[in-house]
Every structure is written in structure tokens, then in C-alpha cells.
């Protein structure tokens, strides 16, 4: 299999999902805010809804790969196992004594159980013994020593495939930083990936990326050699410039469009307010991206028209008068079609909050959405789109829809 993602809406061939496991059971009222959740999900129901989502993908011919299975398979390789533990459990995270205790526990686990523990976390009571140390002394038996990773549910964010390569994203929040270790290990050591020919555009856990954070929910591969990236709560302009430099240097892209978002949790990623739904069509939440400041980034001294260019290093940064005009130009279209979140202003607010804009296209004009967003889904159906709905009573409470929960590995161009 050759891994590549050449568009947002071309036929989806293979996708990476993460079925919620132990980590969701360890989400509690006392830790949910720290773990970036607004509420505690009913884990069993969330798994049922996620299984139904995966079944819809399979029914439409998409190969579904599961993160927990790939991680367990990766950890059967001694080199991969050692690399993952080195970057997951260390003194800077746990202190010297507690790190040694955790490594002692993990060393005794087989690959599937090790994967489960890395994803689901470890409590102090699970440790074989505790060495004398301040960190251990301050913990109660039920306290989490190694935190769970419930946000792995949103596989879109941790790594994102852009044309012929992948970005191993430096995550903005501490609660998600260990996720990148798992994806990098899978892509680096698992034979089905390691034997494939692809580039690593950006990121990785062996470098401190400082303020250059990027998350896949902000990255849209719109096609025609162009990429659209949102800059808000999680992704920064520093990362956008570094990614653009690498894409241009390898000839993988010819333009990056960067759009500014409010730095608010409600709009944590671009795909919470805007997704591409057809070759020439976008769904957006009004008031956030319409009128948002937008820049075109191109390689070298290329005249893209419009406002005067700001030349920095080997990048040309040009302010654009309109996001949607910039999108049309990047896609070689006269104009793009823009659909807004359904309902009146109050209903649009509700449906945006319930991921009404976070749709996954599985081919041009064929979309997967939560069934609860009735007004938006109805508007799209009346416009000729096929909208396949899945239940999201629990999953939507995690603040992510079908696009958030899926990391395309192979997708056709359009």
C-alpha cells in the first residue's frame, strides 16, 4: 500500500481510527478538564457508536485500521518497544524514582497489554512496588501515575497525511503530547509503513518544537497542490511556516493558505467550523471563517496578486482579501460554493457545538455526519449531497465529529 492523501473529498481508500478503550473509562469529573474533555462520556455507549461509524466506512469500501492494534503489533519489535518506552516514561515526566517504578511494571507486560497501559494509563496501585521518592509519597493508590490518552479518539490531530508524506504533529497541550510517540513509532517501525515510500514533512518527538505546534484538525488538503491550515488555539504560524518550507522544498505543494481563527475552545480546530464537502464546496459556520484574515504562502518570489507580499526566508507571504476567493484561485475555479450551518442563529450555534460542521467526505458529495444535526444535514441533502448519518449521543460530547475521529491514510485526488 502506498500511503498518500491527495485531497479532502476524493475517494477514501484507507483510514486510521481509534476505538475507545480503557482510557475513556478513566475519564472522571475530576480529571476531564485536564484531559481536554468538557464532560464524562458513557464509555460503553461511545464504543457502540464508534463501531457503527467504522461499519459505515467499511460498507462504503474503506479499509479501517485501528490504532491500538497497530501499536500492539509495533511493540512486538524490541527496538520499537525500547524507543516507545524511552520517549513515554522518563525522569522529566515522572521524576527519577517514579519513572523507574513505572518502567519496571511496563517491562513485564506483553505487547497487547503494554499498548493498553500506554493508552489507558497506570494508577499507583498497579505498580509492583514504589521506590522512596517525593512523587510517590504524594500519590494515593487510585491516583494516575501515567495519564490516560482519551484524545487518541481523534486520530485526525496527532498525525496528518499531506500528499505523499506525513506530519508527526507536535501537540499544543500536555495531555496529548504522548500521542505523537505512538504514531511515530507505528510509522517508523511497523513493516507495512516502514517499507512504504513516504516523506515526514514536519514534527516528531525527538525535537523540541517549542511554540511550533500543529494539529491535524487544522490541516485541509484541498487538492491541486494546495493546503489550507487554520491558526487558532492549537496550531501556530511558526509551525505553518516550517511545514510550508518543507512541502515547497520537496515540490509536494505549491501553495499554503493560512487562516486566522479565534483562540477559543469552541473553535479549537479549523474543521470544527469548516470542512470541504465537494470538489468546489465548503461547509462553514458563519461569523468565524467568513471574513477571517487569510494569507497565501508560496515558494520564492512568486507574484500571487492582491496585497503587497512580505518576503521572509524562501517564503512569500501575501495577505488575501477573502478566504473563499483565495480558495477558488488555489483550486483553479471561478468560485467555490459555500454552505452554512443549518437553522436559525441559535440552532446554528447548537449544531456547530455538536460538530455539525465536522463532516467526513468519503467521496465527492458523499458525507458522514452525526444524526443530531438535523438542520445542517437537511440543508445539504436538499442541495444534492448524500449525507450518511451515525449516532453521536456520547461521541459528540467529546467535541469531535466524523472528520476528527478519522485519519485518512490513502485518499484519491479529484
Protein topology:
Layout: E1 4-5, E2 12-17, H1 22-25, H2 43-59, E3 63-66, H3 67-74, H4 78-88, H5 91-94, H6 96-107, H7 111-120, E4 122-123, H8 134-137, E5 144-146, H9 155-158, E6 159-162, E7 165-168, H10 177-189, H11 191-194, E8 199-203, E9 219-223, E10 226-231, H12 237-249, E11 255-260, E12 274-278, E13 281-284, E14 294-299, E15 309-312, E16 315-320, H13 323-330, E17 337-340, H14 345-353, E18 360-363, E19 366-370, H15 374-382, E20 386-390, E21 407-411
Parallel strand pairs: 1-21, 2-3, 7-8, 10-11, 13-17, 19-20
Antiparallel strand pairs: 2-21, 4-5, 6-7, 9-10, 11-14, 12-13, 14-16, 15-16, 18-19
Describe the structure.
By secondary structure, this protein is of the alpha/beta class. The chain has 2 domains: 4-16 and 42-66 and 151-411, L-arginine/glycine Amidinotransferase, Chain A (5-stranded Propeller), CATH 3.75.10.10; 68-148, Orthogonal Bundle (Pentein). The chain contains 15 helices and 21 strands. It has helices spanning 22-25, 43-59, 67-74, 78-88, 91-94, 96-107, 111-120, 134-137, 155-158, 177-189, 191-194, 237-249, 323-330, 345-353, 374-382, and strands spanning 4-5, 12-17, 63-66, 122-123, 144-146, 159-162, 165-168, 199-203, 219-223, 226-231, 255-260, 274-278, 281-284, 294-299, 309-312, 315-320, 337-340, 360-363, 366-370, 386-390, 407-411. The strands form 6 sheets. The protein has a 6-stranded mixed sheet. Strand 6 (159-162) and strand 7 (165-168) form a beta hairpin. Helix 3 packs across helix 10. The radius of gyration is 21 Å and the shape is globular.
Amino acid at each position: 500500500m502506498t500511503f498518500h492523501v491527495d485531497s479532502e473529498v476524493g475517494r477514501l481508500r484507507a483510514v486510521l481510527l481509534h476505538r475507545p478503550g480503557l482510557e475513556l473509562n478513566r475519564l472522571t469529573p475530576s480529571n476531564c478538564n485536564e484531559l481536554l474533555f468538557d464532560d464524562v462520556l458513557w464509555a460503553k455507549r461511545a464504543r457502540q457508536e464508534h463501531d457503527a461509524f467504522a461499519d459505515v466506512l467499511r460498507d462504503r469500501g474503506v479499509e479501517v485500521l485501528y490504532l491500538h492494534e497497530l501499536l500492539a503489533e509495533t511493540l512486538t519489535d524490541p527496538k520499537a518497544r525500547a524507543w516507545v518506552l524511552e520517549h513515554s516514561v522518563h525522569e522529566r515526566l515522572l521524576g527519577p524514582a517514579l519513572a523507574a517504578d513505572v518502567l519496571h511494571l511496563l517491562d513485564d507486560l506483553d505487547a497487547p497489554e503494554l499498548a493498553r497501559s500506554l493508552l489507558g494509563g497506570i494508577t499507583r496501585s498497579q505498580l509492583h512496588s514504589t521506590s522512596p521518592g517525593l512523587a510517590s509519597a504524594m500519590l494515593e493508590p487510585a491516583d494516575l501515575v501515567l495519564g490516560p490518552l482519551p484524545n487518541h479518539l481523534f486520530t485526525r490531530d496527532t498525525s496528518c497525511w499531506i500528499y505523499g508524506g506525513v506530519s508527526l504533529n507536535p501537540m499544543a497541550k500536555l495531555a496529548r503530547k504522548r500521542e505523537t510517540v505512538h504514531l511515530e513509532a507505528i510509522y517508523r517501525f511497523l513493516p507495512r509503513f516502514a517499507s512504504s515510500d513516504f516523506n515526514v514533512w514536519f514534527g516528531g518527538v525527538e525535537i523540541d518544537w517549542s511554540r511550533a505546534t500543529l494539529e491535524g484538525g487544522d490541516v485541509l488538503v484541498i487538492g491541486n497542490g494546495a493546503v489550507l491550515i487554520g491558526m487558532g488555539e492549537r496550531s501556530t504560524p511558526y509551525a505553518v511556516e516550517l511545514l510550508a518550507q518543507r512541502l515547497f522544498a520537496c515540490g509536494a505543494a505549491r501553495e499554503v493558505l493560512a487562516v486566522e481563527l479565534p483562540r477559543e475552545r469552541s473553535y479549537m480546530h479549523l474543521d470544527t467550523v469548516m470542512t470541504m464537502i465537494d470538489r468546489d464546496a465548503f461547509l462553514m459556520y458563519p461569523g468565524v471563517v467568513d471574513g477571517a484574515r487569510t494569507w497565501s504562502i508560496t515558494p520564492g518570489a512568486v507574484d500571487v496578486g492582491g496585497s503587497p507580499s512580505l518576503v521572509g526566508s524562501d517564503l512569500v507571504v501575501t495577505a488575501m482579501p477573502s478566504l473563499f476567493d483565495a480558495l477558488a484561485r488555489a483550486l483553479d475555479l471561478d468560485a467555490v460554493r459555500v454552505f452554512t450551518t443549518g437553522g436559525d442563529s441559535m440552532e446554528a450555534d447548537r449544531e456547530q457545538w455538536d460538530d455539525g460542521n465536522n463532516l467526513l467526505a468519503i467521496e465527492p458529495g458523499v458525507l458522514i455526519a452525526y444524526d443530531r444535526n438535523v438542520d445542517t444535514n437537511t440543508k445539504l441533502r436538499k442541495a444534492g449531497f448524500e449525507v450518511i448519518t451515525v449516532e453521536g449521543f456520547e461521541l459528540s460530547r467529546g467535541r469531535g465529529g466524523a472528520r476528527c475521529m478519522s485519519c485518512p491514510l490513502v485518499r484519491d485526488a479529484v
